[in-house]
Amino acid sequence: MIKRPRWTTVLALLLVPLLVAGGFLWGTWGANPRLRNVQAAIVNNDEMVTINGQAMPLGRQLASYLVDTDRDQNLTWVLADSNHAAAGLADGSYAAVVTIPKNFSAAATSFSGSADKAVQATIQVQTSPATGVAETALGQHIADGAANSLNRFLTGEYLKNIYVGFNTMSDQFLELKDGTAKLSDGAAQLSDGLKLASDGGVQLSSGAHQLLSGSNQLTSGTDTFTSGVATFDTGVGQYVGGVKQYIGGITPMMTQVRGLVTQVPDWGDLVTTLDPIMTNLPATATQLNTQIQTLLPGLKSTLTTLDGFVTQTGDVQTALAAYASQLASQTVPCPAQLQAAPGACDAFNAGVMAGQASAIGGFTAIAQQLQVLGSDADTLHAQITTLLATADALAAAAEQLVQIAPAAAAQWATLKAQLPNGTLTRAEVLALLNQVISGGDQLIAGGDQLVAGSAQLTSGASQLASGSHTFTTGLGTFVSGVDQYAGGVTQAATGAKELADGTTQLADGVASGAGKVPTYNEAQRTQLSKVVASPVDTTDLQDLPLPTISWASLLLVMALWLGALAVFAAYRPVDPANLTSSASNVQLLWRGMRPGLLIVGVQAVLLAGLSAAVAGLGWGTGLGLALGALLIAGTFVACNQALAAWLGTRGRVVSLALFLVTVISALAYSAPPAFDALKMLSPLTPALSATRAIMTGQSPTLSLLGVAAWGLLGLGAVWAATIRSRTVNLSAVSA
Fold this sequence. Notes:
Elements: H1 7-28, H2 31-34, E1 39-44, E2 49-51, E3 54-56, H3 58-66, E4 76-79, H4 82-91, E5 96-100, H5 104-108, E6 121-122, E7 124-127, H6 133-163, H7 166-263, H8 268-329, H9 336-339, H10 344-418, H11 426-513, H12 522-533, E8 536-537, H13 539-542, H14 548-570, H15 585-615, H16 619-647, H17 649-667, H18 673-678, H19 684-695, H20 701-724, H21 730-734
Parallel strand pairs: 1-4, 1-5, 6-8
Antiparallel strand pairs: 2-3, 5-7
Helix pairs in contact: 1-17, 3-6, 7-8, 7-11, 8-10, 10-11, 14-15, 14-16, 14-17, 14-19, 15-16, 15-20, 16-17, 16-19, 16-20, 19-20
């Protein structure tokens, strides 16, 4: 009697085609809008070129066209450097990478130079071996479209800006040649005129600085002179005060003595009164003479300083007259570029004459101030000369008193020793007293004249110092203006020289290029037509290879999973004979897994060798791929045996569902978000990642650890199923 299958088995068989078809339809339905989630990178290594003064960053323009978010695109393009792009290409972050080479702009615009050197530009497109198969071809099509668009842009610009202008270019060059020649001549004349003005300005500035230096020295001398006069005036005041104090004490006494002498016939008391005065008269006269002789050198030194000041003011006036004469004789020619304009040269000459007149007026005003200062100095010189004469007379009187005093004292001593009291004649005593009183009066009168002259000298010196400071300040302002004038003229001359050089170079360049309107022979026209029609070569983009590693890795994992699924469709995942077997659990586990491990292991080695050959992998990478495939095979065997052992036919349906989730996610990264969540529950996901990492030279360690974890989980489930097969429940025994 044939055993009928369970209804669940029949239902599972009916649902298998629907599951496969429905899974693929679900994974690909509405995929176009989700393609924007797939990223492609652009690496712009292009170096901008300049054509006829116009910057041509064509690599930047191409990158801008690709990343334009306003256009309807199937991929999301991002800018990246070479290192990040390579890493993203290897791990699947970027479905494709478009690399714009360093010479892209130079090659794409090479048709604007020599026709023999015109070449087509190229770009490089790489597809990721680790991304969805459906997305890898989209980068090629978009890069191809961008290159074609750039071709149309470059072709239009070239034809519009170059070929259209050939008809009138020659005539325009000839007109430009004549105009630039005239401009060059005018600029040269302007440069020569301003050079003369600049030289004169430099000389004027140098002379003005010399004048300012002399004025500073003059101001310093007047300050020193004023200080000395003030000190002299103080000394004169002290001297005259002492003289007046001394004479003021002597004269009344002598007057009283003279009155006594005329009124009192008894001379005894008179001798006693006159004795100390007559005895100290030589010393007193000597002291007065010393003070007067001390004042005379200071007064003479002051007169010498004033003479030097008068000489300096005369020298400065002479220098100012020379500068004014030099400036009045200097002429500045009208620049050639102003001569063509009516009235321009008149305005230019008027401005130059006004500037010269202003400078000459400044010199004249300064000379007038110096003349006034010189006149004041002459007046002061006369006053000091008069004062010096008075001081000399006073000194002579003092010296005479010094000469008379010893004789008078000696005569007094002789008289006092020879004559007893009452024997001196009154006439002799009165004569001596009159001499003393007269000398005192002369000293007082001379002192007053000396004080008055010293005061006049101090006032004149102060006025002289004040005028000197005012003159120096005004002269400093004038010198500053002269410096600004000289600097401005020098800058103008430098600018005019640069203008003349530039216009000369322009005229030479235009004359050189007047006969260089480009012409092309037939071969050059053919080459330019090819390059101008398509500056960017898209041949390599059309022959872009399919992602071999993506297909090979996906087929290897698919085959191993289906192989493990098929093994436990043909073999029982758990042998019913385990119930009565005397073998150990380990032996029974090995017996159950042995067919799958052997069959799928052989499949793993064969598929690894085939994949390595198709992808062009080396021996080392191929051996690593084989070892990884053996680990994946063991894991797939354990997982499929566990699903079949515990769920039976339903476990095989689950295995098929896990297969579909992984395959659809691998074929298109634009699958619905649910597939991203479900594929994390599939052992095929880390297996596919590990396989692609090995084939692309990346580190597979984390992915292989995930594969091993699924293997241990499956092995534990098979172990539990083996132990369960050796037990029976009571209900089954009763049945």
